[in-house]
Structure formats: structure tokens, C-alpha cells
Amino acid sequence: MKFHERYGPWALITGAASGIGAEFARLLAERGLDLLLLDVDESALLAHVESLSRANAVEIVPLVADLSHEDFLSAVEPALEGRDLGLLICNAAVGSVGRFEEGDLADHTRAIDVNCRATLQLTHRLVPGLVERGHGGVILLASNAAFQGTPFVANYAATKAYNLVLGESLWYELAPRGVDVLAFAPGGTNTPSLRRGNPELREGEAPAGIMLPAPTAEAALGALGRAPSARPNLRGRIETFILTRLLSRRRAIKRVGRATSTMVSSSQ
After folding, report:
1. Is residue 7 among the annotated active site residues?
2. What is the CATH class of 3-267?
3. In angstroms, how far is CA 144 from the centroid of its own chain?
4. What is the pLDDT of residues 106-160, one digit of tens each?
5. Any idea where the domains of the chain sit in the sequence?
6. Is 160 a catalytic residue?
7. Does 166 score more than 70 pLDDT?
8. How far is the CA of 167 from the CAs of 21, 89, 97, 156, in angstroms?
9. pLDDT score, position 257
10. Of residues 7, 156, 162, 254, which has the active-site annotation?
11. From 160, 162, 172, 254, active-site residue
């Protein structure tokens, strides 16, 4: 089946106003899919919807909702009515960088709500429809931090490990019923959240080890239906292989910790 036939006519993307989510929206609009775009930032979301609508002959519905609220689905349900949704991309995520005990408990809890609970709620709500139609897809955004303990982003890494394991597990469960699931682990990507933790990084820059949102999103769409999980480039795959296969758990965590501590120091 062609992409539009398999994953259309509608797709739902969370965190769609900026970064990787915005690029997912652009790429899917170019493929002719109609879009439900969800974000908490109303002004940025509406601006992105206007830009996409000018460039593409697709229907785009903005959904303003805060995924940290347990009842956020109430803002989504009316938009789902009567629409044949074939693709769910859970991209929205929050997290903080720093020593675990110095982080605010409310921020840690919000990360669990946005990164894990909201992903669970959306996936559980929409998968039955995908199974019933016999084709479709789900992309859950994990992270390279999900593959091993990652000091200084401990809670964020733990939430991304949830997405990685959930996605790989659902890949096995749903593939025989025609639904493709991918846990996608982008490495460092120049998004607004990364720039907040790295003030010296400018939008549009891609220094060594950093990707831009567009090729990251393209890599995820290209990997959908091919594997239970994927990384966007050869460097990411090699790094993950070294950390998870060649190094002991202790050495891998120490290596990641040293790299992350440098990022923490530069952002203070």
C-alpha cells in the first residue's frame, strides 16, 4: 500500500507546533494526509497551521490541550468523531536537566504525565480503531537516553524508556493485525527544548552530533513498518550499540554521565 493509503487519511500528532512535531506535520501534509495537530502553545500552533494550510491542500484541525491534564482527551474526542484516523505520532515531551534532587517534584511529575500517561491514554484510545480498519501506524518518540541510565536527565530518561518498551511491545502485538508500531529514538536534535538547555546553540545549526528536526522526522517516517525501534542515523546506532552491547552497564552509565554533565555545566 502507498503511504497515504496505509496511514491516511487522517493523522494525529502531539507537540506539533515546533521542533520535530512541526516537521512531522509538514512531511505528512506534503504526503497528502489530513492532520489533527495538538499542542499546548496556541499561538505557535495556529501560526504553524496557517503556514501548512497555505502550502498544502489538506484539512488541518488545531487542538489546543495540555497533556499534563488527565482529562486532555476531552479536547480531542470531538475532533475524532467521523474521521478515519490512520496514524498516531506521540511526539510531545517535557523534561529537565540537572541533579535529580534539585529538580522540582511537580516538574518531574509533569514529565511522567506528558511523556508516559498521555502517550498511554492516546495509544489505548486509538489502537482499537486501527486494528478494526486493519492498517495504520503508531510512532512513539523515545530517546537515546532510553537505552541506559542517563545521569542528570534521570527522570526524562526513565519516561523515554517507557515509550521505547511500550512501542517495541506493541510492534509485536499489532503487526499481525496490520498496524505498524515504531519506537523512534532521535539523538540530539536542534529543537526549542534543546536550545533552552544549550543557550549557545542557534536555530538551524547542526554541529557535530546534532541533527535538524526535518531529517529526524523523515527518518522516523521512513523506519515505520520496518522495525520495532530505530535511531535516525548511523552515528546514533553505533553509539547505542557501544553503550548497550560493548560496554558494561556501569561503564556505559559513567560515559553518558560525563557527556551529560558537560551539557549541564554549559547551561548554568
Report:
1. no
2. alpha beta
3. 12
4. 999 999 999 999 999 999 999 999 999 999 999 999 998 899 888 999 999 999 9
5. 3-267
6. yes
7. yes
8. 18, 11, 25, 17
9. 72
10. 156
11. 160
